[in-house]
């Protein structure tokens, strides 16, 4: 057999247990899907089914190379295992990517071909929306497949997941206030929201209701106009860009746009002592979590506080009930507090404490499947 060191980067990652990999680095299954006539080229990556079927969205993106697409699917699938574990879901982690520009190549036939490949996995992978895919696309995929969430309410779905994502981020922010300032309140605190799109604008609603002083920025003028119109009579300060926001006099910084917001340039410039936002992959690279901790900045791990969306779509699996999903998303408050406490006790940054807690749940609860139940319940 080929030595692991001779394999390409992708294969080395998939079979990572053979190398000196960190816990959680290897993947259970990676499926390459090809339908020449519709032009479908997709990668479905299942990182772990220790806690249940792997749930994660489908990203539709014009990757520079097929290798890049596989790498992205692997990263995203791993992230979903950790997110779903700490969201308290009985679901593992997976993610899919479709290669291509969704604005030009997305067709009914392509989406339905993709649906048939997801169906062929028999429920080991359950899909949802991600960048480049929308509720309407999930409805199309669901015509070929039983394992689709994020569908429209008319089709039994939960609809827009940003509602509970924002609610969950707000819970994480209240927990951060509790840990940092001794009370779960943001009243009078100055909170900067970078990106007031689907999630960010709902987050502003919560903050205004809480009595926080809100500062926002967005590259789209219409996003700013929408927030101003929604809060007529309330002072919402607007700054030119994310750089200006980071340097503004803030108590809390909430990255709600793209990933990589926290890096060697932004962390030293931050005035806020709490970072808590919706964006995925906020830490630009390994080590940034330590830079934040060294500056006394409390970082609420992104995948912990932005889990409201996956909690919302996961609820569809049992028939969507908004209040039940909201009650689960409210638990993000307790989980965030627990992570801060463990981080303090173990002398590690919260991002490390979160990873450890997720890995422990995957191991401890996943192991229970070795106890055989009669009747095939939760095999
Ligand atoms: N929607 C969800 O349910 C959900 C769930 C989990 C995580 N997230 C993450 O939260 C983030 C926001 O998601 P969304 O659904 O609100 O996306 P969105 O596209 O609706 O909103 C992003 C906003 O950020 C703005 N923006 C982009 N670049 C910017 C920049 N450089 N400076 C300032 N603003 C900028 C955009 O104009 C847009 O208004 C993403 O990172 C997403 O992956 C979203």
Layout of helices and strands:
Layout: H1 9-14, E1 29-35, E2 40-48, E3 54-55, E4 58-61, H2 66-86, E5 92-99, H3 102-105, H4 108-120, E6 125-126, H5 135-141, H6 162-181, E7 190-194, H7 198-210, E8 213-217, H8 221-230, E9 236-238, H9 242-247, E10 252-255, H10 266-269, E11 274-275, H11 288-294, E12 298-299, H12 302-305, H13 308-315, H14 322-330, H15 332-346, H16 350-366
Parallel strand pairs: 3-5, 3-6, 4-5, 7-8, 7-10, 8-9, 10-11, 11-12
Antiparallel strand pairs: 1-2, 2-5
Helix pairs in contact: 2-16, 6-7, 6-13, 6-14, 6-15, 13-14, 15-16
This protein binds nicotinamide-adenine-dinucleotide.
Nicotinamide-adenine-dinucleotide (NAD) binds at residues 161-162, 165, 194-200, 217-220, 223, 241-242, 256-259, 278-280, 306, 309.
């Amino acid at each position: 057999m080929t030595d692991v060191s001779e394999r390409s980067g992708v294969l080395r990652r998939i079979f990572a247990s053979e190398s000196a990999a960190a816990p959680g680095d290897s993947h259970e299954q990676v499926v390459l899907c090809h339908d020449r006539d519709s032009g479908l080229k997709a990668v479905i990556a299942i990182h772990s089914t220790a806690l249940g079927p792997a749930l994660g969205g489908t990203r539709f993106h014009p990757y520079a190379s097929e290798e890049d697409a596989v790498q992205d699917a692997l990263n995203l699938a791993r992230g979903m295992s950790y997110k779903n574990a700490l969201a308290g879901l009985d679901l593992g982690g997976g993610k899919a990517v479709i290669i291509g520009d969704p604005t030009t190549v997305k067709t009914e036939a392509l989406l339905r071909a993709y649906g048939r490949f997801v169906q062929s996995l028999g429920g080991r992978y359950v899909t949802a929306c991600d960048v480049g895919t929308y509720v309407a696309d999930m409805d199309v995929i669901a015509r070929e497949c039983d394992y689709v969430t994020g569908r429209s309410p008319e089709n039994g779905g939960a609809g827009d997941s940003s509602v509970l994502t924002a609610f969950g981020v707000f819970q994480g922010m209240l927990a951060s206030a509790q840990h940092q300032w001794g009370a779960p309140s943001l009243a009078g605190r100055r909170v900067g929201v970078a990106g007031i799109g689907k999630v960010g604008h709902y987050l502003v609603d919560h903050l205004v209701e809480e009595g926080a002083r809100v500062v926002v920025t967005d590259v789209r003028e219409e996003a700013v106009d929408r927030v101003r119109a929604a809060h007529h009579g309330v002072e919402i300060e607007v700054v030119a860009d994310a750089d200006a926001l980071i340097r503004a006099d803030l108590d809390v910084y909430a990255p709600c746009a793209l990933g990589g917001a926290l890096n060697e340039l932004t962390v030293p410039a931050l005035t806020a002592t709490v970072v808590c936002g919706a964006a995925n992959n906020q830490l630009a690279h390994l080590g940034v979590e330590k830079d934040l901790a060294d500056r006394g900045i409390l970082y609420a791990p992104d995948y912990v506080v932005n889990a409201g969306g996956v909690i919302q779509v996961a609820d569809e699996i049992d028939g969507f009930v908004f209040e039940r999903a909201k009650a689960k998303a409210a638990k993000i408050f307790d989980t965030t507090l627990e992570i801060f406490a463990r981080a303090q006790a173990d002398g590690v940054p919260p991002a490390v404490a979160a990873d450890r807690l997720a890995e422990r749940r995957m191991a401890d609860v996943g192991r229970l499947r070795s106890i055989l139940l009669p009747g095939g319940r939760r095999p």
